[in-house]
Each structure stands twice: as structure tokens, then as C-alpha cells.
From TrEMBL:
Pfam families noted in UniProt: HTH_Tnp_1
Lineage: Bacteria, Bacillati, Bacillota, Bacilli, Bacillales
Organism for this UniProt entry: Peribacillus loiseleuriae
GO biological process: DNA transposition
Protein name: Transposase
Entry-linked InterPro entries: Homeodomain-like_sf, Transposase_8
Length: 90
């Protein structure tokens, strides 16, 4: 059974709400205006705020994506090493 209020918001919408927050709108105002829970907005703010506060810094979401890609690449390298060992024996 799915939760009643399960919504999927696109990244542009999330970024817009976070930008409005940083431009001075309160979370409660944004929540009532856009129909998104305050908890969800706070999660978006945390996920989309740069780590060290500078404009072109990485967000926690960016870091998680980089870590995921890094793990995938490490796995690919291990597969290639095993394949090289197999072909080297022939």
C-alpha cells in the first residue's frame, strides 16, 4: 500500500523553492503556498545547499552522486583486472 501524499517533484521545482527560501520567504509560507510539507522543504534546503556556502560548491546531493559513480568505476576496474588476468593466461 502506497503512502497517501506521495509526490514526485522535479529538481527545478525543488531548486526554485530553495531559492525562494534564501530570498527571504519563510518555510511555513512556502509550505502553504506550494502545498509541500515544511519537513520536505527543510530536506530540500539541506540537500541543495552548498557544503561550504559558496556559489559553485558541491551540495550533499552532488557528493552522494560522485561517491556512487566512484564506486561504480572501482567495480568496473576490478572486472577489467580480472578479464586482463584471464586473457594474459591464453
Amino acid at each position: 500500500m502506497e503512502p497517501k501524499n506521495k509526490h514526485n517533484y522535479n529538481d527545478d521545482f525543488k531548486k526554485m523553492v530553495v531559492e525562494l527560501y534564501y530570498m527571504g520567504s519563510s518555510v511555513s509560507t512556502l509550505s502553504s503556498e506550494y502545498g509541500v510539507s515544511e519537513v520536505t522543504i527543510y530536506k530540500w534546503i539541506k540537500a541543495l545547499t552548498p557544503v561550504n556556502g559558496q556559489e559553485n560548491s558541491l551540495t550533499p546531493q552532488d557528493i552522494a552522486e560522485i561517491q556512487k559513480e566512484n564506486l561504480r568505476m572501482k567495480q568496473e576496474i576490478e572486472i577489467l583486472k580480472k578479464a586482463m588476468a584471464i586473457f594474459a593466461r591464453k
